[in-house]
Amino acid sequence: MTEFWLLIKYLLLGLVQGFTEPIPISSSGHLVILQELFGIEIEGLSFEILVNFGSLIAVLVIYWKDIIRLIRNGLNYMMTKDPDSKGDFQFILYLIIATIPTGILGLLFEDYISSKLSTVAVVGVTLLLTGLALWIIRNIRGRKNDGDLKVKDAIIVGLAQSVALIPGISRSGATIVAAMLVGMKAETALRFSFLLYIPVSLGITMLSIGDILGDENINALAIPYVLAFAASIIATYFSLKWFMNIMAHGNLKYFSFYCFIVGILVILFL
């Protein structure tokens, strides 16, 4: 029975992380809430790394055509200076620029955030802030396409992503809010947000390989980890597809309502 509960626990955590990763309600915040609500304690340091890598795989599957196009045109521009490829080359540069703030701040404050800010009280407040940000941009309709972006746009979105290191601040929410505030169209904001997720998630995974290999629980929890990993891939894939449809119809206000409700409930009862 204990082993069965262990499998159910990690399946649930994988599904929750995967489903909440793409949508603007904070996957890290929901994992904190879930652990507090059900008294779940995650054994091993590798769990969050693996389920985030599962989400990364789902994002790669959905955006693989964009990724191939960017790589092909980026390389073509570097070799031939073809003006038709310049826009994609610049888009790659902006993704790199936007990644830098998160990388620096993550390395500097990761331990502090993990030890001091991963609490339900913090998550309750930050969910309210996420809801407020989503409410502010609910009716914004930007005009900037991929080729209209500037360096300052990339820096602003990158700084917003850095704020999402705090549990309860949604990464997708923060980057999409920032992208729409600087004038991006919803489709461009969504694409930039999730293509930006790729280098960040990949970097975290690469830097954490040592932690995974050194995790004393990795053998005992191999099956639960694999189950959660697979669940996160599937849940992220369908959640992101669903969110892309919501973004196309401009219904972000519903996520704002959700964050307000959950944030208030967490503050009052957990």
From TrEMBL:
Keywords for this protein: Antibiotic resistance, Cell membrane, Cell shape, Cell wall biogenesis/degradation, Hydrolase, Membrane, Peptidoglycan synthesis, Transmembrane, Transmembrane helix
Membrane topology term: Multi-pass membrane protein
Any GO BP annotation: cell wall organization
Chief place of localization: membrane
InterPro entries per the UniProt record, alphabetical: UppP
GO cellular component, one term: plasma membrane
Subcellular location: Cell membrane
Molecular-function GO term, any one: undecaprenyl-diphosphatase activity
Enzyme class: hydrolase
EC number: 3.6.1.27
Stored Pfam families: BacA
TM region(s), chain numbering: 44-64, 91-109, 115-137, 194-214, 220-240, 252-269
Extra remark: Bacitracin is thought to be involved in the inhibition of peptidoglycan synthesis by sequestering undecaprenyl diphosphate, thereby reducing the pool of lipid carrier available.
The protein's role, per its UniProt record: Catalyzes the dephosphorylation of undecaprenyl diphosphate (UPP). Confers resistance to bacitracin.
Family: Belongs to the UppP family.
Protein name listed in UniProt: Undecaprenyl-diphosphatase
High-level lineage: Bacteria, Bacillati, Bacillota, Bacilli, Bacillales
